[in-house]
Amino acid sequence: MLTLQYVPYHEIQDLSSIGRIRKLLNMVAKENKIVLLEGRLKREEEAELIKATMEEINHSFKGIELAVINPSTQGSVIFGKFRSNLFNMLLGDRQGFTIIGPASVVKNIKKDPDKLQLLLSENRRKRKR
Amino acid sequence: MIIKVFRSYLKRIFDGLFKKKANIKLGLYGSPNAGKSTLANRITKDWLGQEMSVVSNIPHETRDINLKEGVEIRKGGKKLTFNLVDTPGIATKIDYEDFLKFKLNSKEAKQRAKEATKGVIESIKWLDNMDCVLFVLDSTANPYSQINITLIGNLAARNIPVLIAANKTDLKKSNIKKIEAAFPQYKVIGISAERGDNIEELYDALFKVLK
User: What is the CATH number of domain B2-209?
Assistant: First the structure.
């Protein structure tokens, strides 16, 4: 069975960077869940997540598929920047959402500015946003 | 982590004030098979007369950090010296079974996967040491991959200057406009590291970024 776990931002808000990464990675690597996180990790935490993922790789866990959807980065450069700054001021890292799935379940996440496709390796289902 | 980034930022400012230009570290970063090692070889062959990395079509061929010190390029009476760092490609997943498709046996594939995971960790660790990054993208692939966005965003957060080399322009599917649209805030130079196409423009851009 495939489980999609929604994680509201307040659940990670007060955790340390390592705590956030461990919490999310445990759900993906240990519980084999696809995580839908409200908002996003900090830029440095995203790189640390990749590093931590590599440390977890073994015969059953092959890594993750990751996508961050940030609506404020869309649109023209000037307007996009203005909107991004406004969103940042109001919402911080709460804006958008992040999808993290085990690579054994999520074969690929195709991302274009205006659509997101999750290609699942188990039953080849395709979801579109 | 924020303290670590702040420290790294201060170190860069301090180093920038007192460090000799010869100590500049120029990192080649990107996904596996983007052509980082081919570009590293092109640069060192052009200016040192020798190659520095092993290249193959099997992903994760570079699994250790390769450093070539004292690369000196000259353009129009100007000189630029840096240490070139060829890094293992960064990925979010590594499955040894993917290597079996390249006729590696199971033992070799598992070993390669193990080394590749360590390589990714090293690449990320080395981000802290870079003064400038030449981000190599395969111009035939979708630039909106999360690895590209995460790494370039991470470099921006660390205040490390980035120049994008859109590689493989000799291939039909190459689409530089898509890369420029994906990263409008960065200078994008289309090149073919294998054939040396437009490599002079890349050197000109390096002078501007590393001045």
Answer: 3.40.50.300
